[in-house]
Amino acid sequence: MTLDLFGSVQRKVPEHEDLLPGVVVLRRRALADDAALVAASHSVTSISPFRHMVTPGGFTMSVAMSNCGEWGWVTDRTGYRYDRLDPQTGKPWPPMPAIFETLATEAAAEAGFANFTPDACLINRYEPGARMSLHQDRNERDFSQPIVSVSLGLPAVFQFGGDQRADKTVRVPLAHGDVIVWGGPARLRFHGILPLKRGDHPLLGAQRINLTFRRAG
Ligand code: MD3
Ligand code: FE
Predict the structure, then answer these.
(1) Model confidence pTM above 0.85
(2) Which residue has the CA at smallest separation from atom 15 of ligand 1?
(3) Is the beta carbon of 181 within 6 A of some atom in ligand 1?
(4) Could you tell me the domains of the chain?
(5) What is the average pLDDT score of the chain?
């Protein structure tokens, strides 16, 4: 804390915050690169387009998804898994753009995870009304590796629960440019996204894009 010329208290806006055990929020960390990240995301989805996948229970997801990197997360009637091939194109997922990998590795290092090398990036697209119900991410091989998420476009409300689905949840607002590193005790917590509110973002219009970086294989 410092006193300025007029004697008023100035608190530093935290740019690195331990929100909850294992959760490091790097607010607006991706802002300077936002247009380049959106352009790179477009280059991926021009090859492997966004699609609404079906859950093992037979529900079509409201979130549209694509992937890049060595592994892509997919779901269909047979289950959830990582696959090297895009089932829609029959080809490997597009390579991870350098600007994605650099951001994910740097953010993980800033949160205390040295040498994070993601081999999978799931790209989620939310339009107004789209949501992701409470779930755990457990298709990855090594839960000691963190997950890095990057929010772009319209704001969303993230729900963060406990180790059991019924545990109480806290709500965390996620804004354009926010980067969050989820590791350690947070890694297997239940989480989800509340239905996206409508809006018009200068860069992305009526959408939210979330990049989720993982070490899958
Ligand atoms: C906390 N995506 O793709 S990102 C997902 O905004 C997913 O699209 C949400 O949950 C989204 O699986 C949330 C933040 C996130 C991602 C993975 C986590 C938080 C996490 C894994 C464990 C704990
Ligand atoms: Fe998740």
Answers:
(1) yes
(2) 149
(3) no
(4) 16-214 (2.60.120.590)
(5) 93
